[in-house]
């Protein structure tokens, strides 16, 4: 096959003609990154020249980089929130985009405790689809024979709401799974899933997961890869199997679907595929009733070649658990994306998680990079920070990603910090370092320092009647259990030791903290069951002073020492845990309803 692909591959040529075209496209885009970026910017500026937002900055029809950079400010969500709110309220005039805003994508990033609303336009679905279409051609270079079996992917839709102006607001993946792009995708032997659309599209998370797991068990020998979007999602599926294997095995034995699955579309589908299979049922029971679940994934799905889950960024905390359940199968992180825009893909998906780099595809949006100052205070950048173009970033440096999208975000700070690891042709490759200002994360929740501080303040008010206050605190995302949960260490000042705070009051403090968290956290607790009850561990007096002594003994400056508001360094955890005098858990679920949209 005459394909000019320079993507390094141990296996050689593309798997099929379709793959060859996709790889060729990657080559073209990455070779011409500079020109593609110029064209993307010109397109965005030309088509949106008459929007209220761009007119404000008097570009006078200019679509070149220099004018754009000299006239448009770099912004955050809060800067553009008034415009977004007007669109949400029903203003259909071209405010940000000349193309009508088709819906809002609800980001897991929050503003004032609520999910951010990202405007999108219809054609963005094509752009997302295009990026998805590049993933398998790259994977096929490294893992042969994926057309000989299926993928067991746990994919879910989440609840959606409408804005006062009538636009749908929902997560980007919900939007994608409900689109015709996904639902009526043409047959592709490399992308056959065990999960039927009926299960993926069922809004009830129990029924959806139950059916997806059941289908995965029925076709266990065909499964060549297992996946979910994030590592936490795949572990939730394993936990689900731990809790429900007996019922699942019963269904397989009898050929009758659990009556708790009531969704008519699922029942119709399963009536076709679920047949009594006592041998498989006994196998599932035999494996699952064992105490030891080490390597369970390869025992149940013996032909699995890799796990397809994101384990970069905050998800790295799940790598040891995934290795335990899979016996160390390769972990493939295939793409880097957000509600604002899909960014790029990993051209070497079978590499070690610590070595994952994403190549940003220059056709997706216009990308700029704000040099990230390691020692800056708080925001990590200041007015002197330099913004550079995609092709001008330097290997080894860290940058914050700034995007200009077709849907009407201009010079928008995404909040992700990326480090340049190298180039593929002239397109840089990035290691995802972290999201700015995120202290705690279990699933898609992201809790920052201010939110944690506010939660501690609210909860500690409940201790006033005991004449007690919180003198110091820190936190930890405990992911040893599934689902993981937040642990907050408190050192208390109990002014009247004869009347310390009651057990019940401290439990209520846990719940009060949860009530104070943002809506993504509360949705994780209530609707998705992806986060466990918050725990407060009260440590004995003087513990935080010991923590400081420890930091100073390791070279911290006594003048500049600040209590870390989140910890994960083992000796520090051991110190804290050895000083715990009592532990308390949230006794109930916090309040959460699908969001109000003002
Ligand atoms: P959302 O706002 O819910 O659309 O989430 C998008 C954010 O998830 C990105 O801005 C990143 O912070 C994070 N994210 C997405 N893909 C990856 C990845 N492959 N590795 C690490 N973090 C990611």
From TrEMBL:
InterPro entries: GH3, GH3_C, GH3_M. It comes from Senna tora. Belongs to the IAA-amido conjugating enzyme family. This is Putative indole-3-acetic acid-amido synthetase GH3.1. It comes from the Eukaryota. The keyword Amino-acid biosynthesis does not apply. Signal peptide: none annotated. Residues 451-569 form the GH3 C-terminal domain.
């Amino acid at each position: 096959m005459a394909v000019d692909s320079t993507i390094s591959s141990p296996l050689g040529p593309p798997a099929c003609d379709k793959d060859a075209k996709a790889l060729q496209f990657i080559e073209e885009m990455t070779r011409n990154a500079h020109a593609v970026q110029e064209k993307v910017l010109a397109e965005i500026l030309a088509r949106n020249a008459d929007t209220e937002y761009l007119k404000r900055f008097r570009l006078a029809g200019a679509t070149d980089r220099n004018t754009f950079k000299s006239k448009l400010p770099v912004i955050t969500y809060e800067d553009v929130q008034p415009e977004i709110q007007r669109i949400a309220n029903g203003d259909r005039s071209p405010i940000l985009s000349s193309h009508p805003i088709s819906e809002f994508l609800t980001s897991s990033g929050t503003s004032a405790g609520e999910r951010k609303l990202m405007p999108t336009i219809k054609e963005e679905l094509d752009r997302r689809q295009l990026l998805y279409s590049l993933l398998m051609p790259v994977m096929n270079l490294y893992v042969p024979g994926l057309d000989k079996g299926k993928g067991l992917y746990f994919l879910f839709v989440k609840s959606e709401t409408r804005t006062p102006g009538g636009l749908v607001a929902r997560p980007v993946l919900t939007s994608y799974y409900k689109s015709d792009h996904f639902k009526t995708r043409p047959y592709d032997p490399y992308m056959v899933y065990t999960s039927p659309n009926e299960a993926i599209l069922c809004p009830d998370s129990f029924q959806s997961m139950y059916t997806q797991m059941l289908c995965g068990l029925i076709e266990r020998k065909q499964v060549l890869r297992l996946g979910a979007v994030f590592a936490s999602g795949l572990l939730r599926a394993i936990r689900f199997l731990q809790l429900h294997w007996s019922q699942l095995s019963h269904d397989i034995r009898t050929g009758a679907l659990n009556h708790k699955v009531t969704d008519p579309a699922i029942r119709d589908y399963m009536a076709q595929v679920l047949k009594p299979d006592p041998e498989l049922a006994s196998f599932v029971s035999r494996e699952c009733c064992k105490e030891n679940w080490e390597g369970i994934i390869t025992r149940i799905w013996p032909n699995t070649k890799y796990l397809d889950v994101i384990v970069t960024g905050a998800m790295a905390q799940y790598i040891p658990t995934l290795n335990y359940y899979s016996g160390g199968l390769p972990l493939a992180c295939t793409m880097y994306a957000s509600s604002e825009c899909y960014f790029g893909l990993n051209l070497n998906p079978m590499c070690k998680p610590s070595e994952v780099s994403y190549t940003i595809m220059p056709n997706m949006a216009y990308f700029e990079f704000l040099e990230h100052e390691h020692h800056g205070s708080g925001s990590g950048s200041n007015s002197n920070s330099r913004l550079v173009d995609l092709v001008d970033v330097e290997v080894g440096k860290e940058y914050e990603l700034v995007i200009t999208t077709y849907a009407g975000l201009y010079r928008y700070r995404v909040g992700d910090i990326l480090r340049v690891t190298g180039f593929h042709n002239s397109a840089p490759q990035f290691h995802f370092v972290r999201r700015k200002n995120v202290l705690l994360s279990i699933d898609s929740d992201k809790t920052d320092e201010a939110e944690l501080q506010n939660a501690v303040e609210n909860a500690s008010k409940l201790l006033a009647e005991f004449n007690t206050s919180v003198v110091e605190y820190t936190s930890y995302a405990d992911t040893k259990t599934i689902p993981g949960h937040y642990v907050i260490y408190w050192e208390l000042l109990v002014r009247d030791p004869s009347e310390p705070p009651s057990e019940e009051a401290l439990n209520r403090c846990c719940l009060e903290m949860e009530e104070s968290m943002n809506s993504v956290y509360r949705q994780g607790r209530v609707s998705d069951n992806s986060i466990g009850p918050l725990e407060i561990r009260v440590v004995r007096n003087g513990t935080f002073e010991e923590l400081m002594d420890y930091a100073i003994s390791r070279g911290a400056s006594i003048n500049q020492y600040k209590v870390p508001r989140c910890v994960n360094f083992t000796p520090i955890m051991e110190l804290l845990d050895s000083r715990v005098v009592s532990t308390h858990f949230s006794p109930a679920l916090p309040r959460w309803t699908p969001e109000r949209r003002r």
